[in-house]
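User: quick one, fold this
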Amino acid sequence: MKNRYLWCVLSGLLVLFITTSCKSTPVAEEPSSTETPAQQDPGTPDRAALDALDAAAARAEAARQLASDFEGPYFFPGDWQDAESLFSQAEQQKNTSTAASIRESTDRYNRAADAYEALAEKAVAAAFEYAERELTAARNAALAAGAEVLTPDYLLETDNVVAGALEKYEAGDFYGAKDSALSAFAMYGALKAGLDAYNAREQIADKAEELVPDALLSADSAGMAAIAKWEAGDFDGAKADAETVLVMYLGVAASAERQNALNYRANVAVRQDFNSTQTIFTQANTAFQAHRYDEAVRLYRECTPMFAVLAQIALEKQREAEENLQRANRRMAESDQTARDAERILEGGLQ
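Assistant:
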């Protein structure tokens, strides 16, 4: 094929040479052609076609990333698989050897891009509907913990971040809106965890200060660190620290009730029940040290009232024992008095 094409070109040049050689006038310039290289030779790729292919591939990649970042595979798994199939086909069949193959490759990438863009549009909307529900639930949890009364400024700050997320979403700044929504979610979570910790401390402050002051001081210091992170804008860190502080305060509460039970000698008066409760307390401490905070919270909340009940039982037994001792002493005193009276009577009788 190449030889035949070359022969045709050489033949044309020969004819042109002979024609011009027979004329005495200057050779007239050939009229300029308006055909593009691709029009002149449909089989030859050109730069514009390659650029169009690159643009189509980049468009598909960007739409794929957007759909993935906004949980398209989770919300619409069928649409994601369809788009992935088109994209995989475009990748595998990419061909730049001829102008025709470039156009076909470009079309495949554009079909994949169309599918990803349609999916991304639905995924973004679904993601923000989901975010709205989650943020509402998180805000309600913070309100239930007392945010509106105890931390109104922090609550307003968080509400403003939510409003900013909505503005960004409506302006098409989806990534900015996502970042703001995630920040607000962490802020509401930090408020709830911090207020839960505060409420836990309020319930144990008086008793813990007497029984386990060092543990209470450590928890208070951790609480101050959580507040400092909030002020620095590290809301995820503030939330994590506040959750840790909550566990610490619950551990302080359990330790205080345990010490109270020991003070009443519950480990002796109700030995078996005390040992069972002690096992739960040890498990809670182990979970806390292993950062299994949900488990630690559950176990501390389980054993704390148990220690309190055991302390009450031990106290009642102690009081009962004291009353029995007093009755025994009275009986002994009465018996002694009776014996002395009898002795005096006998002595009088003898007289």
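User: anything notable?
Assistant: The two ends are 161 Å apart (CA to CA).
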